[in-house]
Amino acid sequence: MSLTHLNERGEASMVDVTDKAVSERSARAQSLVTMSPAAFAQLVAGQNKKGDVLATARIAGIQAAKKTADLIPLCHPLALTKVQVDFELEPSQNSVRIASYCRLAGRTGVEMEALTAASIAALTIYDMCKAVDPAIVISETRLVEKLGGKRGHWQRGDEQSGGEQ
Amino acid sequence: MSLTHLNERGEASMVDVTDKAVSERSARAQSLVTMSPAAFAQLVAGQNKKGDVLATARIAGIQAAKKTADLIPLCHPLALTKVQVDFELEPSQNSVRIASYCRLAGRTGVEMEALTAASIAALTIYDMCKAVDPAIVISETRLVEKLGGKRGHWQRGDEQSGGEQ
Amino acid sequence: MSLTHLNERGEASMVDVTDKAVSERSARAQSLVTMSPAAFAQLVAGQNKKGDVLATARIAGIQAAKKTADLIPLCHPLALTKVQVDFELEPSQNSVRIASYCRLAGRTGVEMEALTAASIAALTIYDMCKAVDPAIVISETRLVEKLGGKRGHWQRGDEQSGGEQ
Amino acid sequence: MSLTHLNERGEASMVDVTDKAVSERSARAQSLVTMSPAAFAQLVAGQNKKGDVLATARIAGIQAAKKTADLIPLCHPLALTKVQVDFELEPSQNSVRIASYCRLAGRTGVEMEALTAASIAALTIYDMCKAVDPAIVISETRLVEKLGGKRGHWQRGDEQSGGEQ
Amino acid sequence: MSLTHLNERGEASMVDVTDKAVSERSARAQSLVTMSPAAFAQLVAGQNKKGDVLATARIAGIQAAKKTADLIPLCHPLALTKVQVDFELEPSQNSVRIASYCRLAGRTGVEMEALTAASIAALTIYDMCKAVDPAIVISETRLVEKLGGKRGHWQRGDEQSGGEQ
Amino acid sequence: MSLTHLNERGEASMVDVTDKAVSERSARAQSLVTMSPAAFAQLVAGQNKKGDVLATARIAGIQAAKKTADLIPLCHPLALTKVQVDFELEPSQNSVRIASYCRLAGRTGVEMEALTAASIAALTIYDMCKAVDPAIVISETRLVEKLGGKRGHWQRGDEQSGGEQ
């Protein structure tokens, strides 16, 4: 039986975290949804025809955090102990800023859970407002802060990536 | 039995599309993942430690398109007949541009499916590169083009929203 | 090869509806959630500590309708074209009455989708109010009306089952 | 950047249980499915045309318990270590009484898991018997007993809610 | 903006079937589960400690057929109109032969749905018998017959692959 | 109220593992996909028209391991801490051998997770190659090794089941 091993160059696998200590971990992420003045005015006035935009987006974001391991192939399934999704209106630019927060006691971090919550909340806002403005843009989806684990505290700002300004 | 109706102000519900005609519909969306030069170089060289970043993100995006109705509360379940996720490298800004395409013969459009595919592909790239650069930013998540349905052809550019510049 | 056929007595299988005509079908279902005066007062006043009870239950019900085929083993997967969940308060008995409505153009009815939406909305109300009253009861979960298909129109009342009065 | 905080009145979020102790928790719930004499006779005789009603409902209930966090928006994902669904026939009223039991070692209770198991088992019975009796009613869906956690033992009867008698 | 196209060599995508005609399609698949005499005797006698093995495997197989597009990345979501899973005992070799059947009116075939049903039914039998025999083997998982679509009727035997004999 | 207990003969339930100790557990499984020389040659040459077969199958297998409790009715939900899927080519018989590995610190074993990963990876290979060879056979799906838990180390070979040789 002549075998040829295909995986020499390190193909995709879920990293082994079995031996990591269980510790408290949390992460904050955000995303920004920018729309036309008309779409934003309708959202703020609570007159969107599909219903309450932010209440729906909040539930969608919370539910999505729990689906992260089903969506992101190499993510570990995690028993989240806290998920929160908040919104701030930025009327000067017709934007809704989404802030997500996840926490658990576990063997690996919850950055992807926080980012997934923010992303799906943003897509839900898009879905409910797209009849008025199909050109809505989702930007600034990024990690804000991370606590716990081997590397300890990380906060956006110290080390800057090349994202939008 | 005294009843008080709670839904006078039009609460969230899935829009009725039963009586819409079945027609061919398609949508293109995109997203941009911008990372540090080190993370980008590693991705391009195929040396990411978690595996082949773009192959994994492509599958994640395709799978996510099929989960759209499960993720976005008011989306209708749709029998997608085509999903594609492509990537272009933009070395000048250390970015990966994701282009998604969805198509079906159905009663409602596939914008959300295309946007969800692009968003989850972007999050998967984030996940696989975050060990090198946790500050990665996902931006420019937006609809590019849409065909079919009552409104016919829509293309980004005619009507501009207030997204990032 | 001596074979013994195990399925002579008609074991579970998903009924074949391939040859049924595609037609418009709809269904209405309901459920009743009865709680203590304290829990009901808190719900009505919008002071539940977990958040907006009915907005959350509405989204949960809509999402659940889309998961029906995943929950009920012999249900066919259906492309719902309309899902709605409404609530009526019945202060005289500290109850919330849930009314769900589903519709599609398809080969089989949507009774289970309407009943699943009502049931999961009811469970969500329970979840959000159980800290105040763990003894909440969900009752009167039943089909109210059904349109379309071979049997045409069915409405509760003509033929009475032995449920609660 | 002028911000307006939308969440002052405590919108929906998943309660933080990170700091709660891991302890053994269990819950019992029930539900009652009441049907016409003809439908009940067919179920008891094992002559339902869709297959073995109770075997199918039992599996559906067990599977549903594991999906609770996906169905109920603010439920925490839990690693259930025991799920059981039992049935008792009540011929005098043509009813099937469903009894569910869930258990785990965790940071929060399993009431919703037990209630979801009972509810989905009930809906599965409805689905399999509805061809004979569409007027079937599901009632008395409620928590029976709860052990573990800060509040310790709770049993139905001490404090009575306003449900059916 | 200098772009480098990564997908020249045809990366994974879901084949476009939008323009295919809707037609009736069906598929039969099978799988064989072979176990020790002790495990087989226990299964046949209905004395497996986890419960009724074949009733559980049948439901698992039916449910899995509906999850095919969620499991197999490039499969199209399909609205199955019939799923059936049957078992035959082959006492001479302590085997259970699983036969699955799927059908729909659609734009693409249901081979993967039939194969997924058979595979998950097989794994469920393994799960319930593994306490008695962890060495159980699943083999002969293959398509048996396929009807409909451009290629018409295909039946195992005409063209033979290199599988086991 | 006259009750008849239906569960005397031990119907299906999820085994109670609440009181088992949390310990490190791992499992290895495998599966063999055998195809025609033409399909195998195309796979090896990377010229399959649907895309990169093994990269897609690897992701599908990893994702499937995380869905095990959703697929196999009596499996406990487990927080896997490692999933790996590898492939070896066996050109002499036009076969791809799939090797899966799962690990966690938990109360029950991960055999089903490893077997599910191997099975779904096999089905994905089938899906991508079936246009060239619909007669592909999946065989030798079996547990290879298991570590941890009460029974300790188990390795295929000591005790032989009646599968293929």
**What percent of the residues of chain A sit in helical stretches (DSSP H or I)?**
25-40%
Q: Please state the average pLDDT score of chain A.
A: 90
Number of helices of chain A: 4
Oligomer: homohexamer
- Low-confidence regions of chain A: 1-9
> Strand pairing plus helix content of chain A: what structural class?
alpha+beta
**What would you call the shape of chain A?**
elongated
Percent of residues in β-strands of chain A: 25-35%
N-to-C terminal Cα separation of chain A, in Å? 58 Å
Strand order of the largest sheet of chain A: 3-4-2-5-6
Secondary-structure element series of chain A: EEHHHEEHEE
**Most extensive protein-chain contact, per-chain counts:** A-B, 66 and 65 residues
Spatial extent as radius of gyration of chain A: 19 Å
**What characterizes the major β-sheet of chain A?**
5 strands, antiparallel
Total count of strands of chain A: 6
Pathway (chains A, B, C, D, E, F): Cofactor biosynthesis; molybdopterin biosynthesis
Keywords (chains A, B, C, D, E, F): Lyase, Molybdenum cofactor biosynthesis
Domain Molybdopterin cofactor biosynthesis C (MoaC) (chains A, B, C, D, E, F): 14-149
GO molecular function, one term (chains A, B, C, D, E, F): cyclic pyranopterin monophosphate synthase activity
